[in-house]
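[Solved] Which block belongs to which protein?

Original post:
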Amino acid sequence: MSNESFEVFYDGDCPLCVREIKTLRKLDRKDRIVFTDIADQDFDARVTGLSQGELMASIRGRMPDGTLVEGVEVFRQLYGAVGLKPLIPLSRLPGIRQGLDAGYKVFARNRLRLTGRCTDESCELPVETA
């Protein structure tokens, strides 16, 4: 990861997530984003300091200085990295910010159901076992 790259940790088993990542890959002409699939069998959550369950619960990203961000802030950083910086201040306006944050939380909690990935037993996000 370069000193200017933003790393996104995404669920490669989530069809909606993968669609968004494909779009961002196309837009990332200056290679400012590192894409890390947390569903990949070789991925080790320990590199983030978080558990696999925490990463599955909400999209996370790592700033160039190593700071972790979560939720809508990840999308702000991603869109800024691909040249859509004018959207960032709009997404922080009162009312819009709260709406985006609330909408993302609803999506994150219901992501398996919304993407048809519920099992017969549950529609809960996987929980890490020790």
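(Second protein starts here: sequence line, then its structure tokens.)
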Amino acid sequence: MLAAWFILAAAAIESTPDLGTSQGQCRPNETGAAFLVEVIGFKDRRGRIKLELYPANDRDFLADDNVLLNAGKAFARVDMAVPRSGPVELCIRAPGPGLYALSLLHDRNGDRKFNLSGDGVGFPGDPKLGWSKPRAAVAAARVGTMPRRLTITLQYRRGLFSFGPEKP
């Protein structure tokens, strides 16, 4: 049986791909509330990487993007092809200073569907992942009036019951 968080993550990946991208994409040299996220721990350099911003509460964290946007709640997305080499950094705008939950997904085959056995996930604070989604509080980060730098480590399924970062 799939865990609730995997179902929610799959729904997020299969949601409307362009929703939230105009709100999320930073512009060059932009100031204001945003997260500059360095991504580490790639299993490989193929597919797409997607960073999403949610309200920092358990009810809305990983909820459907259509529902959040229709309710006027915070949601933003940045989606790009994984660069073949070099550091990977994504910038996602926040609606304003505050606490937000972030979710990072590595869609290794680029099909916009979550693949439990192959795709990677990550959250601020690198919480230990199991069969349930992390609480919004451990996947959240605070941003002020200027961009904030974060590092998120991707985690991939290791065996039947656990996730962890790739070992070099």
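Accepted answer:
You had them paired correctly. Confirming on the second one: Helices lie at 4-13, 21-24, 65-70.
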